[in-house]
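REQUEST FORM: STRUCTURE PREDICTION
Request ID: SP-0412
Submitted by: Lab K.M.
Chain count: 1
Length (residues): 378
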Amino acid sequence: MSRQYDVVLLGASGFTGALTAEYLAEHAPPNLTWAVAGRNKAKLERSGKDVLHADVTDPQSLRALAESTRIVVTTVGPYVQYGEALVAACADAGTDYLDLTGEPEFVDRMYVRYHERAVQTGARIIHACGFDSIPYDLGVQFTVEQLPERVPIQVNGLLRGGGRPSGGTFHTLITGFSRPKQNLEAHRARRRVEPRPEDRSAKAVPGKLHREQGFWAVPLPTIDPQIVGYSARLLDRYGPDFRYSHYAAVRHLPVVAGGIGGVALLFAAAQLPPARNALLNRLKPGDGPSPERRAKSWFNVRFVGRGGGKQVITEVAGGDPGYGETAKMLGESALCLALDDLPKTAGQTTTAAAMGPTLRNRLVKAGLTFATLSQDDY
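STATUS: Completed
RESULT:
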């Protein structure tokens, strides 16, 4: 594909977008042509890169953007409000698309509306290329690779971490909480049109509170199981009957109760416009933790996989999950699509299906760890 640019980053003036631009500036090879795009050219010109005009409320500008590059990377959310026109433009133009969404409704609606068009044009539409959901998507794939083939497999993921959200992430969370009916409608619409494997089963299943690996495993209702389940439907290596359950790992039961209560209060407040607006005014998009705070942040995800009489325990770990590592994951995803020899895929796909071990190797070289802790008969 002959385009002016290999990669264009939309949203580089935002908090996470600026970190992603810094990552690309430091790690992109000299032969990669890339630019930044957005509404405020004055802010973007500080990056020292070519600046393209693009406004998420102006579909014509997004079409021009998509036609100028092989890959579009966007950090502009909440995506359910600002993302659809860009997905449409990329699907039409045959341009690869990467984002950081953690919004199940958006991912489901984009599948229903643009997957088939992207298949026709060859565009790869890949959502959730940051902390949501690369550690889980690639971590489960790494775990499955170490279990026997053609056997039923169960994987549990247990997340621990420390960090503080940015304004953009907080706005995305509250927006998602405020739309339970729309989320359910989008989920059902996708189930009606997405083909399912005929000779095997692969899905995410809700877990139950229990003890595992020395922690309380608390079911975690994020987008990550949805992404893992889709990868498992796309890839035969996950076996004839694959199940994934997703948890937060918490040491003390009172912390579990406090966390559940806090989430319930946020969910209830998000249903009421005055309370929702008050919450959204507490953090503005573009706000984020200081470099000192980010330097103290961390995460690890432990995966317990069982199948064919074998048990394997693996771990994916890194530093500041929401920002430093997310910018790294998104930046390396863009570089992987632009530069590496990858399986032929098109339409809405996932990091595991489109990039898999190639992206994992990039992330290991960039400082994330994928480790096997134990392998035993079960």
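NOTES: The first strand starts at residue 5 and ends at 10.
Reviewed by: T.R.
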